[in-house]
Amino acid sequence: MKLTVEETEQVYEEPITTQAPMQLNGADVFIETLKKHQVEVIFGYPGGAVLPIYDALYKNPIKHILARHEQGAIHAAEGYARVSGKVGVVIATSGPGATNLVTGIADAMMDSIPLVVFTGQVATTVIGTDAFQEADIIGITQPITKHNYQVKDVADFPRIINEAFHIASTGRPGPVVVDIPKNMATGLFVTPSEDEQEVNLPGYQPTTTPNFLQIQKAAQAISNAKQPLILAGAGVLFARASDELATFAEKYQIPITNTLLGLGGIEGNHPLFLGMAGMHGTYTANMAIQTCDLLINVGARFDDRLTGNLNLFAPNAKVVHIDIDPAEIGKNVPTEIPIVADAKEALEALIALDTPNGNTAAWLESLNISMEQYPFHYQASVERGLLPQQVLELVHQYTNGDAVVTTDVGQHQMWTAQYYKFNHPHNWVTSGGLGTMGFGFPAAIGAQLAKPNAKVVAIVGDAGFQMTLQELSLLQELRIPVKVIILNNQALGMVRQWQETFHGERFSQSLIPVQPDFVKLAEAYDIKGYKIETFEDAKVQLKEALESDEPVLIDCRVVQKESVYPMVVPGTGLHEMIGVKPE
Amino acid sequence: MKRIITVTVINQSGVLNRVTGLLMKRQFNIESITVGHTENPQISKMTFVVNVEDERKLEQLLKQLQKQIDVLKVNDITEKQIVVRELALVKVVSPPAVRSEINSIIEPFRASIIDTGKNVVTFQVTGSPEKIDAFIDLIKPYGIKELTRTGVTAFVRETQKVNTPQLSILK
Question: What global pTM score does this model have?
């Protein structure tokens, strides 16, 4: 007799009720191990293959956030991880549950966000038979995870989970997937020895302490430099080294620029801060890169959006690169002084040395003049209507630069990076490397859970918001006071901008005039909605909305024909920025 | 440039996929690959022959391999004193009339006959890839019916004459 999948499952699956009362199964141990790792919140979505896990969770609860789509769950976990500094934990079922996580896993990989993602899987007895809701998630996520596991023995649960948390959170952080076949979760657990539960990773020994000789070389280069510059990336934030970064820059009087993901690593109004560099960075920061004689990269990876044309990048600079991931050093930019280390340890070592300062006074003076000469600019008028930049300036003003701000990708993201000056680190959550639409809103929910008392503002575009807006249910359910600000230009703004600039104004599939009534949509979820169409309204209503203790949604109808400037056109050097001055 | 790279890995399912997937993702073309476990059955050794554009790409390849959690050791042994061996099985058309002629050709290669049919003979030849190339060239005119090569596996010799270039990061 041939058995169907359902029947084969019944053959091996013992109902839990037949077990001896105290005998633990894999799922029970799974939950216990998460508790040992002090997991305070799980973002997830149940389904067939993870039923035993959700059953164990029912009996031994950990706070669980039921997102309305797995992608929402994982982006929320990313927001939570970024803001809290802890590992984000996600659970989804096999097959479609797992594949719905793929975008979030890839996003976390690109932006080095520590996640441990648990996926259900069909039983080991039917893996490979195209069973119901089977997907090869190990194969699928292999190139987009720091590491992945499939549990093949119930006794391995503690060790695998310990290793997953260790890998996700140490070295260069990243996502780890643990695939759990259903019969592993239901299988009886026989406690392995202490040894067998411990992390055993001979091939994974990240270097955190810098080589002292390299530190001395870097210090010597700093003394000799007349025009040194620090490029600080997200590595500074992951190392919790923003205080050290400021001390280092102040001690040696070196100006700082940030990558997009590094924003917040230095206070937005710090006198040595030149603003963000790169495609839509400040003219001053980009020119500083092009003219510096020493470029000290701390925890950034020389992404193409930062460097512009690599052949023209930082032509006069000697490059020092501090990175915990040796593979990033020399990948894109030849490096004279590589330092493999944790950013905090490397900066502490540099601060501890008593190397004399180079004389940078003239350099700092010229950069200050440039900052005054080339600020970000926009042309506002009552006739043009509400500009996105005006909205962001008001958001900054009303939150005093203290808010946690999340975004998707695109124009609104760049304007936020330009106009929101962060007073504190770890308040900036954006999808940088992968550039994921639909990221910002669920990430804000995770961020708010990490910091319940913080003002959390999700700045999103009208198109990106519609990719994950189902998570409004979470605001309705949890009543957490996330402020959703839609910069609504009825378009895919950045696509529209590129079509205007590079494709002869042929706006192919980038204009979206037909839209839901976002205020009514908010009301459907029992959330207060605002619609703002003028700067005058914005001044009043944004203030009111941002001061509210409730979740709110603000639909800002902004000018469609507005582009992000200045800009480094792809293929050109950073010094060739366009739109530097108002026309 | 052609490089021979050995990778020592923890022997568990998925590790070969991880390593070859990494090479594919980073746009490296694998010319040959051999895998087998070492004296310790929990540890496997892979030998790759890879074509890389330049030093920087090579360095990136070695670092990316080293970064994998299951990878214990990565070595570019191209410029070391090494022993390189490959095995080929060649099925050749060999009617009785030319059989002795073929046998005299294969002798210097120390190839052995491992199967004989009415009109075909299968040879096994081992040695450096160049030796196997030469063998195939010589035997080709008789008509090769089937050919399969294992790809190279390699060892570093006990005594080394030259120092190998190190990663720039270690300099």
Answer: 0.93
